[in-house]
Design brief:
It is built from 6 helices and no strands. With about 150 residues, it is an all-alpha fold.
């Protein structure tokens, strides 16, 4: 086989396949790493750091990966736990991490995500219940929730 018989198109295709595979591997690896770090921080009761790493795990995940579901479930659990403890600001951060992480993983076509809509509803409820923003002091709870 002569060197001339190697077609430049075949080389380009092989290079593109190699690059694509390495990008997919990196994304999957980062998602697993972030999920493991988040789980470790949650076990150590460092919830603020756990929330940050779960949000990153959502952003790094691939469509066919279970990383997103695991991270979302953990964030929902943390938010409920924090809300039950009365830490509304931290619960709000957890819900915003769910919504923001899912918003960051959209593709060319993304249908409405019921999990994100649920998170946005919880965010609206917590903001309406907080009542600490002076700019909204004249609005009723119903008006705040609607906004």
């Amino acid at each position: 086989m002569k060197l001339r018989s190697v077609r430049p198109g075949m080389v380009a295709v092989l290079v593109l396949i190699t690059l694509g595979a390495s990008v997919l591997w990196r994304v999957a690896s980062e998602a697993r790493t972030e999920l493991a770090a988040a789980d470790a921080y949650r076990q150590a009761a460092r919830l603020a750091l756990a929330v940050e790493h779960y949000r990153r795990a959502i952003r790094w995940s691939l469509p066919a990966s279970s990383t997103t579901e695991q991270a979302v479930a953990a964030l929902e659990s943390i938010a409920a736990e924090l809300e039950a403890d009365g830490d509304l600001a931290a619960a709000l951060l957890a819900w915003r991490s769910v919504s923001g992480g899912l918003a960051a993983t959209r593709f060319l076509y993304s249908r409405p995500n019921p999990v994100r809509e649920k998170a946005n509803g919880r965010i609206a409820r917590l903001v309406a219940a907080d009542r600490s923003a002076a700019i909204d002091a004249s609005l009723s709870t119903e008006q705040l929730a609607a906004d």
